[in-house]
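Support request from a user on the community tier.

User writes: "When I paste my structure tokens into the form, the page sometimes reloads and wipes my input. The last time it worked, I copied everything first. Here is what I submitted, just in case something in the input itself triggers the reload:"
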């Protein structure tokens, strides 16, 4: 939690907002931790580890083992994210993209199967999607201007997560459904 709080403070400052702005919005109020286990695969070219997607969170902090397999879509191509001992991977999620009006962009990523393994990772999703709240999130007013109007409509995290889950991991961002 402490690392997430620190990251939200730094991102708030990067947006030229008060350091507590994202925290005051509730971005660090919920945390979901998932362990992922990908067994070794004798023919990795015939399967998918996890299809391409973006996360339905504010941010995701990932601890991956030494096996590798995480790829991120960067500069119109899939790029390996090699594991570095002791390092964490931080991805912006869809909800951070929505509230920052595209100032931070959700990381499109996937996991490919490997012949070696198993691959184990632990992902910490900062999201309030599991907390029952009727709070509506939309682009932060201080980030909007006449030249940069809101790109997304307001939504609750529950509405967003419900749509995200119903849509599935089809390679298309759920954010498109909330675009104005």
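"...and here is what came back when it finally went through:"
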């Amino acid at each position: 939690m402490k690392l997430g709080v620190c990251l939200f403070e730094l991102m708030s400052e990067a947006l030229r907002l008060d350091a507590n702005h994202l925290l005051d919005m509730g971005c660090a109020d919920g945390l979901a931790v998932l362990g992922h286990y990908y067994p070794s695969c004798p023919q990795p070219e015939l399967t998918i580890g996890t299809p391409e997607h973006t996360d339905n969170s504010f941010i995701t902090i990932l601890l991956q083992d030494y096996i590798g397999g995480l790829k991120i879509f960067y500069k119109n191509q899939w790029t390996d994210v090699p594991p570095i001992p002791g390092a964490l991977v931080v991805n912006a999620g869809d909800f951070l993209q929505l509230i920052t009006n595209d100032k931070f962009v959700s990381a499109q990523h996937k996991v490919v199967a490997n012949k070696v393994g198993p691959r184990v990772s632990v992902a910490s999703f900062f999201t309030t999607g599991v907390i029952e709240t009727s709070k509506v999130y939309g682009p932060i007013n201080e980030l909007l201007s006449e030249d940069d109007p809101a790109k997304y409509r307001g939504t609750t995290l529950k509405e967003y997560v419900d749509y995200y889950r119903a849509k599935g991991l089809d390679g298309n961002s759920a954010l498109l459904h909330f675009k104005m």
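Agent notes: The reload is a front-end session timeout and is unrelated to the input. Strands lie at 31-38, 50-53, 59-64, 70-74, 77-80, 89-92, 109-111, 119-126. The two ends are 33 Å apart (CA to CA). Escalated to web team.
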